[in-house]
Amino acid sequence: MSRTIRVTVRGAFDGLSAQQQAELVAEQAQHDFMHTQYSPEGYLAYDLPARPFFAFRFVAQAAEQAEIPAITAGAEAKAAPWMAERGYPVKNLTSQTVDLSEVPLGKRGRREAEKRG
Asked: How many CB atoms lie within 10 A of CB 74?
């Protein structure tokens, strides 16, 4: 059974220069929190200048539960270098991993699952 794993890596920008902040604000429409998605490459979302925080959202597939820690570590290993490559100082990186196969279905989800079989 394949499991869909979602990893959210969160952190804060730390001491952005005025030029860096202006660059991020100019690109903000591409990184809107209201239109976030999970992708294998990672989706960066932030809301500058309102908040100095950001979130990277990753999705991956795992055949076994034992693969989940490596998937989490891989997401963290993608987020920090992405920021460093662009010269964005960050701090307080944390991650949250969700195995969607373990998320309880709501009423609508249960109904749809019953229809499928």
From this structure: 14
